[in-house]
Amino acid sequence: MATKVRVNVANPMELLELPGIGPAEAGAILRFRAEHGPIRDAAELARILGGRPVTELEAELVDFTPSGDTAPEAPGA
């Protein structure tokens, strides 16, 4: 299974790992996050990407968890 990209904390290189995301799209995502905060869902991501639909594959590879969340503790921690 492919690793999901946390779109709300990913750097430009990590965003480029998503299919269909090039430098211009990565820049748009970064600008949106800086101006408006976390991206909530695939529909909002589609608007950021110029209104093109987010493919099923893209949606499966994106994690919309807000940036403030932390990783769960390791078992036995």
Description:
- This protein has 77 residues and is mainly α.
- It has one domain (5-63).
- Helix content is 40%, strand content 5%.
- It has 4 helices and 2 strands; from the N terminus they run E-H-H-H-H-E.
- The chain is globular, with a radius of gyration of 13 Å.
- The model is unreliable at 71-77 (pLDDT under 50).
Biggest sheet architecture: 2 strands, parallel
> How far is the first residue's CA from the last residue's CA?
26 Å
Q: Helix tally?
A: 4
- Output the radius of gyration: 13 Å
Q: How many domain modules?
A: 1
Hey, roughly how much beta strand do the residues contain?
5-15%
Write the layout of secondary structure elements.
Layout lengths: L4 E2 L5 H4 L7 H14 L5 H7 L7 H6 E2 L14
Parallel strand pairs: 1-2
Question: How would you summarize what this structure contains?
Answer:
The protein is mainly α and 77 residues long. It contains four helices and two strands, in the order E-H-H-H-H-E.
Task: Name some characteristics of this structure.
77 residues; mainly alpha; globular; 40% helix; disordered C terminus
